[in-house]
Amino acid sequence: SLQRFGLSDDQVRDFKGFFSLRHYQPGDTVFAEGDAAETFCVIHSGELLVTQRTTYGGERTLGVRRPGEVFGEIGLLKDVPRTASVTALTHVQLFEIGKQHFCELIGANASFHQFLKRLHAHRLLSSIPLFKGLGDKALEKIQLLIEERSVEAGEVLAEEGRVAERLFVIIEGGAISIRSGLDEAETQRDSLGHGDHVGAEG
User: Fold this and answer.
1) Contact criterion met (CB below 8 Å) for 94 and 43
2) From CA 24, how far away is CA 39, in angstroms rounded?
3) Dihedrals φ, ψ of 72, to 5°?
4) Where are the alpha helices (DSSP H) in 127-196?
5) What is the bridge-based pairing of β-strands 85-88 and 175-179?
6) Angle at CA of residue 128, ends 143 and 48, nearest 5°
């Protein structure tokens, strides 16, 4: 029921006709990472696997989505290509709504918009190893403390020998950690990617 996402009965009636029921077989790709974001999905039945490419060319699992859950909101909210791939694990039925009507829906209901923003932040945090195992309440508190920012190539996040004032967790892209040794041979260089963090050590 769409009412559980903060929609009124009138809004459900108004927008119900814009949702299309789609069927997917096991192994079918609903969308792939990098695709243009065109739809928002509500799972009616079945299970789907969400995966994402890693900085090092591999693939990691973000989670399994089940009936009653939604996905596809990130690309539409942020107006960016799909940030992950979604593949059917079983026979799946999805209710899908197109980008234009999705934007009208969130414009007509502020609580639904806020629900999707909280959902996005929660999923982002729960995918980071540093926060694995934390409950919903702890993640909600962390959401209030963090801010998302973009970093330009070459920008220094933390400098060796200086007191760390912030903790940075990498969401997208990569970074290099360099620890000085007595000489070049002892200098340690590590590649950092999604979920890695810097600034936790003084």
Assistant:
1) yes
2) 15
3) 95, 5
4) 136-145
5) unpaired
6) 100
Range 66-76 average pLDDT: 89
Residue 35, phi then psi, degrees to nearest 5: -65, 155
Give the C-alpha separation, 32 to 47, whole Å: 16
How does residue 194 score in pLDDT terms, banded at 50, 70 and 90? Answer: low
Q: Could you give the CA distance from residue 100 to residue 81 in angstroms, rounded to a whole number?
A: 16
Cβ 188 vs Cβ 176: under 8 Å:
no
> What DSSP line would sit under 178-198, residue for residue?
EE--SSGGG-EEEEE-TT-EE
pLDDT per position as a tens digit, 122-160: 777 777 777 777 777 787 787 777 777 788 888 887 777
> By CB neighbour count within 10 A (0-12 exposed, 13-18 middle, 19+ buried), where does 177 fall?
middle
65: Cα separation from own chain's centroid = 13
Structure tokens at 189: 């260089």
Closest to 127 (Cα-Cα) out of 74, 189, 202, 67: 74
